[in-house]
Amino acid sequence: MNIPFNKPFLTGKETLYIEQAVKSGKLSGNGFFTKKCQRFFEKKYGFKKVLLTTSCTDALEMCALLIDCNSEDEIIVPSFTFVSSALGFVRQGAKIVFVDSANDHPNMDVEKLESLITPKTKAIVVVHYAGIAVDMDEVMNLANKYNLIIIEDAAQAIHSFYKGKPLGSIGHLAAFSFHETKNVISGEGGMLVINEEIFCDRSEIIWEKGTNRASFFRGEINKYSWVDTGSSFLPSEITAAFLWAQLENLDHIQERRRKIWNIYFDGLKSLEDKGKLLLPKIPNYASNNSHMFYLVCESFDIRSELISYLKARNIHAVFHYLSLNKSEFYLKENESVDLPNSDFFSNTLIRLPFYYELTRDLQFKVISAIQEFYA
Ligand SMILES: *Cc1c(COP(=O)(O)O)cnc(C)c1O
To answer: What is the pTM of this model?
Structure first.
């Protein structure tokens, strides 16, 4: 039996709601289902304003436009992350300054941040890796001290908390993903969270191709026109309808994922106790939204052997990310910088199969295979 790395979960209502959207005769964005999803998040997590987007990448591009990011700016971004954390800011011509991971966690080392801040620093992109919070009090203190904008890349961090506060509600702006590999999905999809009043009106304009269309449809103005920069960042009602079917089941999905995570943790703890590998570390201030289960191997070679060993047993484990500071694109224009912890996690981290329908039996197959590998 093949155990894939990921399998999108359907709650069963997706096609019903899509049918409703289709029959309603309103297929473009910002309709019934879009508003329902946006309000759901504003209410459940206390986000000031939510706009659905076609991806988290798009939501991050909107952030770059909202903060007027330009070639005079430096943006601090972790090196151990997905390209999208940097992409929107690079397109605006900003210089990306990479921060290393902590030595005991793939998340950024907040203690290294202050030394990277210069008079040109405009923003810090905070990535909550595996949905585990970065120490946001430390980050927000720096933001206040140096007048910086904090953007949470919360792509993996839905329903996760820092000292009880929902991730995505702490920074000035935040971006989430509903890509099919995340906890809650719509195929491709994402959302922008705006927590600062000063960005609220403009975010709608950038979302709607630089026009004040949203304001027009609320009857606040009597014609709409081109007033700013922007793009077409809003998803169609078909995507929003799919997402709504997922959101109705969010608590249930989270509960299932929590059980899967705990089975892995309990089944592999003995290997960590024997010093063979490291399991995910959850700091006291962070909750765990069970976005993924990863292991940290002792070396690159052991990881490669483990992945092959599992693959031979039809178990598909994967690795990511390659440090962005070592990427071909970055090195074309920039000097190489040495970020040993980011490199360490790039070389040794492995993600195990993780999806809603992963049964106990299949999980035990994965756990036994890893136990056998190390025996
Ligand atoms: C998945 C992911 C993204 C990109 O999300 P999309 O919705 O696919 O654009 C960005 N950042 C991180 C940390 C991610 O995990």
So the answer is: 0.97
Same-domain status, 263 and 239: no
User: 198 and 52 in one domain?
Assistant: yes
Domain tally for the chain? 2
Tens of pLDDT, residues 102-160: 999 999 999 999 999 999 999 999 999 999 999 999 999 999 999 999 999 999 999 99
For residue 26, the 8-state DSSP code is -
Report the atom number in ligand 1 closest to the C-alpha of 177: 7
Structure tokens at 325: 């500071």
Closest by CA to 206, choosing from 223, 229, 176, 172, is: 229
How far is it, in rounded angstroms, from Cα 1 to Cα 274?
Answer: 30
Q: Are 229 and 296 within one domain?
A: no
Alpha-carbon gap, residue 186 to 194, rounded angstroms? 21
**Is residue 7 included in any domain, yes or no?**
no
Check pocket membership of 82 for ligand 1, CB cut-off 6 A. yes
Q: Is the CB of 53 under 6 A from ligand 1?
A: no
| Whether residue 50 sits in one domain with residue 21 | yes
| pLDDT number for residue 31 | 96
Residues β-bridged to residue 232 = 208
Question: 51, 52, 60, 153: which to mutate for ligand 1, most atoms within 8 A of CB?
Answer: 153
- Whole-number CA gyration radius for the chain: 21
CATH of the domain at 218: 3.40.640.10
Q: Tokens standing for 19?
A: 């049918």
**How many other CB atoms sit within 10 Å of the CB of residue 153?**
30
d(C-alpha 112, C-alpha 338), whole Å: 13
